[in-house]
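Q: How do we represent a protein-ligand complex in a form that can be generated token by token?
A: Start from the inputs.
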Amino acid sequence: MATEGKIQNIQNLTHNRTKTIIVTGGAGFLGSHLCGRLLGLGHTVICIDSLITGRMQNIANLESNHRFSFIQHDVINPFSTSRSIDEIYNLACPASPPKYQLDPVHTLKTCIEGSINMLEFAQEKNAMVLQASTSEVYGDPNISPQPESYHGNVNIVGPRSCYDEGKRVAETLFHEYHAEYGVATKIARIFNTYGPNMDPEDGRVVSNFIMQALQGEDLTIYGEGEQTRSFCYESDLIDGLIALMEGPKDLTQPVNLGNPCEFTMNELAEIVLELTGSKSKVVYDPLPTDDPKKRRPDISTALQCLGWEPKIPLLEGLQPTIAYFRQELEKSQQHAVKAS
Ligand code: UDP
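Then emit the structure tokens for the protein with uridine-5'-diphosphate bound:
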């Protein structure tokens, strides 16, 4: 009886055992939330970030946790450690169009060489590795919503190609390392996500509109504003990433993660003006080349295989997001006063 009890305890321990987990891009918007969540679940977290777009302020509240460590490293270079590693979330890559277009060759290297380095590292450590892919693999889609079976409509040589094609190759690498070498892989296709820890300067629509509204500046709508996006709050997305990592081992095909509620940019501008109480006006600027006209995830795979779906509607998630940007603005104003 005593032995049986011991065996049961060991089995429970093995099942619930805390893990050592690497998050690349861990100082970025989503990476920092993922690190925080994994620490909260009792895991040991090694955050790797090149700090090209990641920001130390995103992980400042994690640094006092003894199970957290930070390593400044660019995934385009091989990574090694003597420690045992159970899981790797490969989130490293600039994700906002103006940022990933600053150094397109480096963006491609991050997607391709970064993936190879992390896959080889996972193989060496016998660790499960999850790739943060993107809805950008669908390019400017001809069908909506986009299921995982849709192969996309991507310009090979446009301003978005370094990211879109880089992420497409990364998916192929994950697929082949699994098929050829048996590496345990997962692929999450992440749709537009927002929330605290976004860089106010990153040029994406949610950060731009909120920052403009809070400062009484014109909201810059690109094109006619009738293009759509579907916005997912960060905590829902983090739930999805963890559910996928912990989900069925044979679920190695790409899985869409995003919120299927779709909005035009005109609607988003109206909502932001309403929630911020801003008197800003909207202006219409030229639409960037290859800007997708529609984007909305079909999340039936995530729902059926992981029991995951987002819970937080846009109007609810925008409130803490606006409060965060308000704080960021106050901090930078205080900084400017001190400096003058
Ligand atoms: N957009 C906009 N105004 C801005 C920034 C972006 O109208 O100040 C539009 C952009 O053209 C795109 C959508 O908002 O149609 C989402 O852009 P974002 O850069 O956030 O992400 P994307 O989904 O294009 O990668």
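Residues 96-97, 192, 204-205, 208, 220-222, 227, 229, 265, 288, 291 surround uridine-5'-diphosphate (CB under 6 Å). The first strand starts at residue 20 and ends at 24.
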